[in-house]
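A quick aside before the break. I want you to see a complete sequence-to-structure record at least once, exactly as it would be stored in a machine-readable document. Don't worry about memorizing anything.
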Amino acid sequence: MSATAFRNVALLGATGNLGSKILRALTSAGFNVTAIQRASSTNKVAQSTKSVKVDLSSHSQLTSAFHGQDVVVSAVPNPKLISERVWIDAAVSAGVERIVLSEFSTNLETKLSQQLPIVQDKVEIRSYAETLAATGKISWTSVNNGPFMVKYVWSNGWTGPNAKKKLTTYHDGGNRIVCTSTLERIAEGVEKALSAEHAAATRNKPVYVYSAAMSERRMTTLTAKAINAEPADFKERHVSVEAMTAAAFEAVGRGDMSKMMDFYVTFMYGEGYRGDFRDYAWNERFGLEELDEGDLVRLVKSWV
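That is the input. The structure line, written in tokens, reads:
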């Protein structure tokens, strides 16, 4: 099977929020997708999609399920190496050509980012895949996308505005840019990365896509438009990313995990973490356009 002619794809996490979007994108593009589900799962996949239920901790059952598959995609949330290596090793045993890792994160390419506690598992999983690829056992691809462009990230006042409370949070002034993606855009990225046109170029590479380049001030302006208000109507809360990051590392150092979520802000806006990855995103090569102002206002309206 040529690396540029993938047809059969096994998908882990096919019924999740992101996995279901990936399933739709792959099937719409003509891939034959098989949903790999845990034996006890009662979740329903799309009616036309084949489902195979297995013990996800069983190398032999996963190997059997992966026979005849060109690609295995993982959309499992919060992946851990101890569990991910089971299906990765099974994919190798089954002769799978490509695996797509469950990264779906912000910028994992910087040394600073790789030191964040919130991504240690993903860093370890990629390292394991790289080791296998170096010995020719399998190839890998990952898709990364910045923070999800969803209500719980962008509309609760944690980063940027909360329309209901007329409150907005600005980290380091609120002008720093982070690339952010809708779940549909992430799914498009997976599909494009595996397409005949791009599969060779994405071999053993991380791929970056995004829907919009967003700052907290821009999101506050969009939210204000969506509710017929002005940005000045929002009470501002200012936070230093450097101070937040230092406090989070200090807390983790003494065994306090209560500030782990703060590392996501560091990941997005921290100096040197490269949350704005537009300069090496694959959008242009994949033919993916940014959302325009009208699209963004409509999206925000759907949240508020």
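Two observations worth writing down. Residues 120-134 form the longest helix (15 residues). The CA atoms of residues 12 and 40 lie 14 Å apart. We'll return to this after the break.
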